[in-house]
Structure formats: C-alpha cells, structure tokens
Amino acid sequence: MILQGVFVLICSLETLKGKEVINAENGERLGFIDDVEFNLKTAEIASFVIYGRERLFGLLGREENIVISCEEIKVIGTDVILIVQKERKFANSTNTSSNGIKSLLKW
After folding, report:
1. What pTM was estimated for this model as a whole?
2. DSSP helix/strand/coil, 105
3. Cα distance from N-terminal residue to C-terminal residue, the chain
4. Which of helix, strand or coil describes residue 48?
5. Nearest to 66 by CA among 21, 27, 98, 26
6. Nearest to residue 62, comparing CAs of 87, 92, 36, 23?
7. How much is the average pLDDT of 5-28?
8. With contact defined as beta carbons under 8 Å apart, do 45 and 103 qualify?
9. Which of 58, 88, 76 is nearest to 18 (CA)?
10. For residues 1 and 46, what is the distance between their CA atoms, to the nearest angstrom?
C-alpha cells in the first residue's frame, strides 16, 4: 500500500507474534513478540513487548519484560525481526507473582 509516496507495510499482530526478535547489535535472540503497547492519543503502536522468560518453570517468577520501540526495528523479514538496541529496555511488570516461590518462603 502506498500513501503519499510512503511505502506502508500492513501486518497483523498474529503474523508478528510468530517472528523471532534478534538484536543485530550483538546477535542475541530476545524471543517472540507477545504484546503491543498503543498510544491512545494517536492510535499508533508505541512499542512491542516480549514477556520475560520463566525462571525454574515459573516457580521463581519471570525475568523482566523486554520493550522494543518501533524506532529500534530495522528489518521485518519472513521469519525474523531485526532490531538495533544498544541498551536493553525493560517494562514495569504487572505480574504480581514476580517473586514466585521466594514470596512463599518469607512467612
């Protein structure tokens, strides 16, 4: 689709969820896109979120969620999304059981 001389790629969230995210800066495999954050004022996608990896099958909670802004995305391929992120950005986790079993042991 072309709008006013700009090429626009239309892609569904389900399609993006199936793509692995790799940081081209250091080659690290970050995971798969799990969620999207929207700017409600402009109705634009603000960033993508990769949920943190589970620690010990989730018993010890999760690592922090990784946030990827749209400006950091360099290439969206058929299988992979390449980003350039010099410093990893984390989201404020809303997971109340982030301490997992550690919180159970403090009684």
Report:
1. 0.68
2. coil
3. 59
4. strand
5. 21
6. 92
7. 81
8. no
9. 76
10. 21
Residues 11 and 78: their CA atoms lie apart, in Å, by 11
pLDDT at residue number 9: 65
Mean pLDDT over residues 35-62, rounded? 86
Q: At a CB cut-off of 8 Å and minimum separation 6, what does 89 contact?
A: 66, 67, 68, 69
CA gap 18, 12 in Å, rounded: 10
Asked if 74 and 15 touch (Cβ cutoff 8 Å), the reply is: no
pLDDT of 31 reads 92
* Cα–Cα dist 36/48, whole Å: 5
Cα 86 to Cα 69: distance, rounded to the nearest angstrom: 12
